[in-house]
């Protein structure tokens, strides 16, 4: 697909460069808990098929095994948002319900931007925990 402007900027792509978009509803115990919308800047002419995603599950494993792309760094933001009608329908919650919005830009071992992903988690089904340590 032609990526939205925000995705093009995050992936540092020139105008006209297309990306692979993979959108999935993530579940826990059979219940929808999140929507993952990934935009991948793959090497020209390369693709990831639906069958590969369904068979392997992990996009990052596919990047490593198929293309030799090793995720090495990421910038991530978290914020609260409200579910649109479409998001609410996919997550089986009322429109306007709170969601945790996670946006991440991933770089390869060569410091090339590989993925921009937007993940929406149901506020009633997700907890984010971080451990902070101080080096002496």
Which labels suit this protein?
alpha+beta, five-stranded antiparallel beta sheet
The helix/strand class is alpha+beta
Tertiary shape: globular
Unreliable segments of 5+ consecutive residues? none
Helix content: 10-25%
Number of strands: 5
Listing every helix as H and every strand as E from the N terminus to the C terminus, the arrangement reads HEEHHEHEE
Percentage of β-strand residues: 35-45%
Number of helices: 4
**Main sheet attributes: strand count, strand direction, barrel closure:** 5 strands, antiparallel
Radius of gyration using CA atoms only: 16 Å
Mean pLDDT: 93
Main β-sheet, spatial strand arrangement: 1-2-5-4-3
Note the gap between the termini: 48 Å
Explained architecture:
The chain contains 4 helices and 5 strands; from the N terminus they run H-E-E-H-H-E-H-E-E. It is globular. Helix content is 21%, strand content 38%. The relative contact order is 0.20. It has a 5-stranded antiparallel sheet with strand order 1-2-5-4-3. A hairpin with a 2-residue loop joins strand 1 (20-28) and strand 2. The chain has helices spanning 5-10, 50-56, 59-67, 85-91, and strands at residues 20-28, 31-40, 71-82, 98-108, 113-122.
